[in-house]
Specification:
By secondary structure, the protein is an alpha/beta fold. Helix 4 crosses helix 6.
């Protein structure tokens, strides 16, 4: 097979290569942020190949980058590479293995041509509370939980179910999936919906044919990793990259009945290191050491779990030549070891969610805050885990409460979050519950009209609503629950702004409707009283623009 044909077979539906495969090339040409596999064949049998240290030293005008190769089964080794910088580079492989040692090549990186691609997720010294893409565009982190995504098309190389689901998420504004590398089954005390037994096509839990090591979860063999598992996972992450969806990759999960090897054993290190080596070149990767990393199940399995996590964060930094963002799904850990993580992950189910998120926002002014789980799990045909809130509107409101505290958020649907995955919910029979994905499309549509990264929560003026104020561009947004008749916005405007040329507009969170933008006029001494639209029908957002700071 020619090099061109290998590449052509891996082209995505939009005409962009998901992973460009090159067989021992002399020179490759690739666009920014495309992922390339440079494949080499060793000429000798290698003992403990997963423990070998093989690196490509990449040199360019920007300096030197030491990129680890990973073992891919047989005698195959892969140098997986992507770049955010255009220009010419050279590389040489450092290894004692024949067939790898001293291999050289050139890399030519051209400008990105995919309009919706902006690179990996990074932080900014100029705006430390928010996420940005490598090209400087703000990344409005709107996540979707799908722990078992890796299992959806396992054994099917064309990934039709995965592509369908990713297409739905992209269409509805989700740009991140919170997911596990591997999970096995639900916690024993969770709800087990008997109706799921009638629909095994939707049940992806407790499968013995899927395991990252040899053997199975019930009968593990930790002597080596399962290359079939990881080759499939490659294609899942590549499809996510094609759809411009970030993989928030939780490397461990200790409360989903996984038969992990002993912490920091040779097998554990082999697994962890392989994940970091294999996926760091994907621009759509964000590392998370473990889901619910310090809960009671994690502590029961790992006597010194905090020390273990600290060692894993350090290990990740040392192995990851791309410096992808890293966090830990445990607020207690992030709070105590804030310098070890790039952003703060929190799980908070409180009814007073907005206050809790405001507290975190104020406590960590130099890091983004991400609520990875707020207890809102929208209902589905299967009751997997109702959590604290399952009504779709209540779940939507909790997401807005996070945003109006200046923080980022995650949506859960019980039909995709865990072992039950309905990949095509809108193709189910008419009497089957359909998730309200469109609510989040409307949310993204709203935040395309304003710059979230320039807003901050202001709390001293409003008592029945939630406020975000953009002093930089002169915009105020007021989130008003549907039960609330009105709240005084005039006090803030009188105190802080010249609003003689301001405009007003209303946004319906359930329908995505915007009212006509018109001149701001107050007809009542308290501001708005009888004019609030969609009262008792939908939560609304009142948007005031063209404000100027008082001199």
């Amino acid at each position: 097979m020619t090099r061109f044909l290998v590449w052509a077979l891996l082209l995505g539906p939009l005409g962009f290569a998901q992973i460009k495969v090159w067989k021992a090339p002399g020179t490759i040409t690739s666009q920014q942020w495309q992922v390339n596999d440079l494949v080499y064949i060793a000429k000798q049998k290698v003992e403990k190949p997963f423990q070998q240290e093989v690196y490509a030293m990449v040199r360019s005008e920007e300096g030197e980058q030491k990129v680890p190769l990973f073992y891919n089964g047989g005698n195959e080794w892969v140098f997986r590479y992507s770049s955010s910088n255009t220009g010419k580079k050279s590389f040489v492989i450092q290894s004692d293995i024949k067939g790898l040692k001293g291999k050289k090549g050139a890399i030519n990186i051209t400008q990105n041509q995919k309009k919706d691609r902006h690179g990996g997720i990074v932080l900014s010294d100029d705006n430390k509370r928010h996420f940005f893409y490598e090209d400087g565009t703000h990344y409005f982190n709107l996540a979707f939980e799908c722990d078992w995504l890796y299992a959806l098309d396992y054994g099917n190389k064309d990934l039709p179910k995965t592509k369908h689901l990713l297409g739905l998420l992209n269409k509805n504004g989700f740009n991140q999936i919170v997911m596990n590398v591997y999970a096995y089954g639900l916690d024993f005390d969770w709800v087990r919906d008997k109706n799921l037994l009638k629909h095994p096509e939707h049940n992806y839990g407790e499968r013995e044919d899927i395991f990252p090591f040899l053997g199975s979860n019930s009968n593990p063999d930790y002597s080596a990793l399962n290359m079939g598992f990881f080759k499939h996972f490659d294609q899942v992450v590549a499809q996510m990259h094609e759809h411009e969806i970030i993989s928030h990759l939780m490397i461990y999960v200790w409360n989903k009945r996984v038969a992990w090897p002993e912490a920091r054993s040779e097998a554990d290190n082999m697994y962890y290191d392989h994940v970091i080596k294999r996926y760091q070149a994907f621009p759509n990767i964000v590392w998370d050491v473990s889901k619910e990393a310090t809960n009671k199940i994690a502590v029961a399995q790992n006597k010194n779990v905090v020390e273990h996590i600290l060692e894993r964060t350090k290990r990740t930094r040392e192995l990851d030549s791309y410096d992808r963002l890293l966090s830990v799904h445990a607020y207690s850990f992030c709070r105590k070891y804030k310098d070890e993580v790039d952003f703060i992950s929190t799980q908070d189910w409180k009814l007073s969610l907005h206050e809790s998120m405001l507290s975190a926002y104020k406590q960590f002014p130099d890091k983004p805050i991400f609520n990875i789980e707020h207890g809102g799990y929208e209902e589905s045909p299967y009751e997997i885990f109702p959590g604290g809130y399952s009504n779709a509107e209540a779940c939507l409101r909790r997401n807005y409460l996070c945003l109006f505290a200046g923080t980022y958020t995650t949506y859960y649907w019980q039909g995709t979050s865990w072992n039950a995955i309905i990949h095509n919910p809108f193709e189910q029979p008419d009497d089957v519950y359909k998730p309200k994905f469109e609510y989040f499309k409307y949310m993204r549509d709203l935040f395309k009209t304003v710059n979230f990264e320039n807003f901050e929560p202001v709390t001293k003026y409003n008592v029945r609503s939630y406020n975000l104020t953009n002093y930089k561009e002169g915009v105020v947004m007021q989130y008003i629950p549907k039960e609330v008749h009105s709240d005084d916005i005039k006090r803030q405007l009188d105190a802080e702004f010249d609003y003689s040329n301001a405009t007003r507009q209303w946004f319906n969170t359930l329908t995505g409707e915007f009212s006509k933008e018109e001149k701001l006029v107050f007809k009542h001494k308290y501001g708005f009283w009888d004019e609030r639209p969609w009262r008792h029908e939908a939560d609304v957002i009142f948007i005031i623009k063209n404000l100027k700071p008082k001199q």
